[in-house]
C-alpha cells in the first residue's frame, strides 16, 4: 500500500499519486498498489473535486478543537503510541498489506505539524503488524525542530529503504538523522515527470502564448529571504509578464495549479497589469486538465514545481522561478541550470531573455534522465524479493 497526500488540493500531490501508480503498473505489474491519502481525503464521485470522509472530517474537527490542549502533551502521546491514525481504514489496510510505502512529495517535514505524527503512527502500525515499510520518491525539508526530529528519526532509521527525488533532499536527511549514511539513499526524479504517459495530450500545441504560472505570496513569506509585500510581489510579477510579452511578442496566459489561494492572487495580478493580450486560465482541478493546459503553451514560466515537471514532460521549454531547492535542483539535473531564477528578486528582463533563448533552441526531454525515475520501483522490487528479517 502507498500512503501520502494523494488527494490534496495541490495538484502536484495528485500528479505524484497517478504517476507512481503508472510507474508500478509498468515496472511491477504483479504488485497490487493500494493508494490511500493519510489525511483522510478521497476523490469525489465526479472526479473534479476533493472531499473528506465523514470519519476523517470528524477527526480533523476534533484535532482543531483540541489542539491547544493536546499540543503540550503531543511528544508524550506520540512516544507512547497513543496518537490515533487520522483515518482508521489505514490501520486495516496495513494489516492486509505485504509492504507499506510512504511517498511521494515532501512528506518528511515539520509543517503541517501532524506530518511527523502521521509518519510515526503509520510506521508503528506497520511494525506491530509485522509489515516492512519504506519511503519512496520523497522530498525532505531542511527545517527540522527537536520535536519532529525525535519522532521521525527512529522511524527513518528503521525503514527498509528510502528513495528521494533530488540530491538536496538526500543531504537534508542528515539534519533529520545526523548519523545516517545518506550514501545508501537512492536519488531519482520525481515520478510526476511521467505525467505525459499517464495523460497523453493529442491536440497540437499553441504557437502564440507563453504560460506564466503564479504562486501567492503568503506561502513564500515563511522564508526569511522573501521580504516583498503583497503589492510589491504583484508589481514584480507584472514586470515579468511585461518582459515576457515584450521579448517574445507573444500573448501571456496566467494560470495556477497549487493552493486555491494562488488563483485569487492571479486574479489580482490580472487586474493590476496593463500588458495587452494577457488572460487568466480557469484553474485546473485534476492532473489531466493541468497536463492539457501546460502542453498547450509555447513555453512556461513556472513558479510551482509540478507545473514545471508537467511542462518538461510534454517537451515545453520552461523557466523556473525558484523559492525551494527542489526547483533549482530539477533544472540543474535536467540540464537547464541557466533557466533558474530567484522568485521575487530576479530581474524581469533576464527572465524574458531566458524564455526567448529557450524558444530559440529545440527542446528535448532527456529520455535517460526521465527513465531513471524507475529506480524507485527497482529498489522496491529488490526488497520485495528479500526474505523478511
Question: Care to give the gist of this entry?
Answer:
By secondary structure, the protein is an alpha/beta fold.
Can you put this structure into words, describing what you see?
The chain has helices at 11-27, 54-70, 74-80, 88-96, 114-128, 146-158, 167-176, 195-198, 217-220, 230-248, 261-272, 287-295, 305-313, 325-333, 348-359, 367-371, 375-385, and strands at residues 2-4, 35-37, 41-43, 50-52, 100-102, 105-108, 133-140, 162-164, 186-187, 209-213, 251-255, 278-280, 299-302, 318-322, 340-342. Strands 1, 2, 5, 6, 7, 8 and 9 form a 7-stranded parallel β-sheet that branches. Strands 12-11-10-13-14-15 form a 6-stranded parallel β-sheet, with helices on both faces. It has a two-stranded antiparallel ribbon with strand order 3-4. α10 (230-248) packs across α11 and α10 (230-248) packs parallel to α15 (348-359). It contains 17 helices and 15 strands. The protein folds into 2 domains: 2-187, Rossmann fold (3-Layer(aba) Sandwich), CATH 3.40.50; 196-365, 3-Layer(aba) Sandwich (Rossmann fold), CATH 3.40.50. β14, α14 and β15 form a beta-alpha-beta unit. By secondary structure, the protein is α/β, with parallel strands linked by helices. The longest helix has 19 residues, at 230-248.
Amino acid at each position: 500500500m502507498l500512503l501520502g497526500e494523494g488527494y490534496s488540493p495541490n495538484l502536484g500531490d495528485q500528479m505524484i499519486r497517478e504517476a507512481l501508480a503508472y510507474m508500478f503498473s509498468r515496472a511491477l505489474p504483479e504488485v497490487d498498489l493500494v493508494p490511500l491519502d493519510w489525511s483522510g481525503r478521497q476523490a469525489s464521485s465526479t472526479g473534479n473535486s476533493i472531499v473528506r470522509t465523514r470519519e476523517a472530517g470528524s477527526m480533523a474537527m476534533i484535532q482543531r478543537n483540541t489542539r491547544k490542549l493536546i499540543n503540550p502533551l503531543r511528544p508524550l502521546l506520540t512516544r507512547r503510541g497513543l496518537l490515533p491514525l487520522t483515518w482508521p481504514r489505514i490501520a486495516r489496510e496495513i494489516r492486509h498489506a505485504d509492504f507499506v510505502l510512504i511517498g511521494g512529495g515532501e512528506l518528511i517535514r515539520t509543517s503541517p505539524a501532524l506530518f511527523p505524527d502521521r509518519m510515526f503512527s503509520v510506521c508503528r502500525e506497520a511494525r506491530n503488524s509485522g509489515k516492512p515499510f519504506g519511503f519512496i520518491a520523497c522530498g525532505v525539508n531542511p527545517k527540522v525542530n527537536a520535536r519532529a526530529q525525535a519522532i521521525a528519526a527512529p522511524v527513518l532509521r528503521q525503514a527498509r529503504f528510502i528513495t528521494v527525488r533530488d540530491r538536496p533532499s538526500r543531504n537534508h536527511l542528515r539534519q533529520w538523522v545526523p548519523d545516517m549514511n545518506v550514501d545508501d539513499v537512492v536519488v531519482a526524479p520525481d515520478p510526476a515527470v511521467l505525467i505525459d504517459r499517464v495523460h497523453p495530450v493529442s491536440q497540437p500545441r499553441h504557437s502564440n502564448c507563453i504560460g506564466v504560472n503564479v504562486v501567492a505570496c503568503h506561502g513564500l513569506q515563511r522564508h526569511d529571504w522573501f521580504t516583498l509585500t503583497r503589492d510589491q510581489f504583484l508589481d514584480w510579477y507584472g514586470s515579468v509578464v511585461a518582459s515576457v510579452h515584450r521579448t517574445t511578442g507573444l500573448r501571456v496566459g496566467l494560470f495556477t495549479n497549487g493552493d486555491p489561494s494562488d488563483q485569487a492572487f492571479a486574479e489580482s495580478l490580472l487586474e493590476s497589469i496593463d500588458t495587452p493580450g494577457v488572460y487568466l486560465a480557469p484553474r485546473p482541478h485534476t492532473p489531466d486538465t493541468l497536463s492539457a493546459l501546460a502542453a498547450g503553451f509555447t513555453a512556461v514560466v513556472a513558479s510551482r514545481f509540478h507545473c514545471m515537471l508537467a511542462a518538461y514532460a510534454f517537451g515545453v521549454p520552461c523557466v523556473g522561478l525558484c523559492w525551494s531547492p527542489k526547483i533549482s535542483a530539477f533544472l540543474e539535473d535536467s540540464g537547464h541550470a541557466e533557466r533558474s531564477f530567484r522568485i521575487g528578486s530576479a530581474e524581469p528582463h533576464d527572465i524574458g531573455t531566458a524564455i526567448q533563448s529557450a524558444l530559440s533552441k529545440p527542446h528535448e526531454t532527456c529520455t535517460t534522465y526521465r527513465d531513471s525515475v524507475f529506480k524507485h520501483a527497482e529498489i522496491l522490487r529488490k526488497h520485495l524479493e528479500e526474505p523478511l528479517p
